[in-house]
Amino acid sequence: MATLLLRLVAPMQAWGTRSRFDDRDTEAEPSRSGVLGLAAAALGIDRAEPVDHLTRLRFGVRVDRQGVASSDYHTAQLFPHSPKTRTDVTRRAYLADAAFWAGLEGDREVLAELHAALKNPHWPLSLGRRAFQPSLPIFAGPPLEVTLWDALREAPGLRREENGEPYRLVLDREAVPEGERGRASPSRRQDVPDGPFARRRYVSRDVLTVTADLDLPRDPVLRHEDREEVGA
């Protein structure tokens, strides 16, 4: 059993789980389906291919910068230049200037293959939408021989300055130690792919949210890349 951490930092991110038609939402944290989609893109897995070996991995997120929830709108025409076409207005929510660690726990060989793919991805990687490019490398170190819980609590900080606020961790229920579950907030997310991504079918999972005071060193990559980040 091992854990692989993914650094998710970008000027804009979107992790929708309830998007319908012209209304595109985002959760407050990266979704399991979104991160597995990113992993599938890195590995070169087509949308029609199965991703069972990825969905078996446990999943969790640590929120270092929650960002600012915003939305904008787009316009689209099904038949441009036709006098009979209509203009549709779509609303798209996103998180501005957010930073997260996402973690996947499971088979070490699967995670090692994914780590190599993140360093040399088959398809371009984005954080929720194609236009939302990462501003820092997604890949960090190789898979760690620790649990998902410990990896997320020990990962270096992605905050620009430590503000004394506790960190928020959102994990699959089974990934939280039993002794910590009593103080956690339970909820459900419908973001586990049920078959290939092309089916667009998702099942739910139980998650627990925990807040923790953590004394963390600053991520060296963030320190060296400050000038590259929007808002720094």
Question: Can you walk through the features of this model?
Answer:
This protein has about 230 residues and is an alpha+beta fold. The chain has 6 helices and 8 strands, in the order E-E-H-H-E-E-E-H-H-E-H-E-E-H. Strands 1, 2, 3, 4, 5, 6, 7 and 8 form an 8-stranded mixed beta sheet that branches. Strand 7 and strand 8 form a beta hairpin. It is globular, with a radius of gyration of 18 Å. The model has no long low-confidence stretch (mean pLDDT about 90).
Short description:
The protein has 232 residues and is an alpha+beta fold. It has six helices and eight strands.
**End-to-end C-alpha gap:** 37 Å
Shape: globular
List the secondary-structure elements in sequence, H or E.
EEHHEEEHHEHEEH
Care to count the β-strands? 8
Radius of gyration: 18 Å
Q: Mean of residue pLDDT?
A: 92
Unreliable runs, pLDDT <50, ≥5 residues? none
Estimate the strand proportion. 25-35%
Number of helices: 6
Question: How much helicity do the residues have?
Answer: 10-25%
Query: How would you characterize the largest beta sheet?
Result: 8 strands, mixed
Sheet/helix structural class: alpha+beta
Write the layout of secondary structure elements.
Blueprint (H helix, E strand, L loop, with lengths): L1 E12 L9 E2 L7 H12 L8 H4 L2 E8 L2 E10 L9 E20 L1 H12 L28 H7 L12 E6 L5 H4 L3 E9 L8 E11 L7 H5 L8
Parallel strand pairs: 2-5
Antiparallel strand pairs: 1-5, 3-5, 3-6, 4-5, 6-8, 7-8
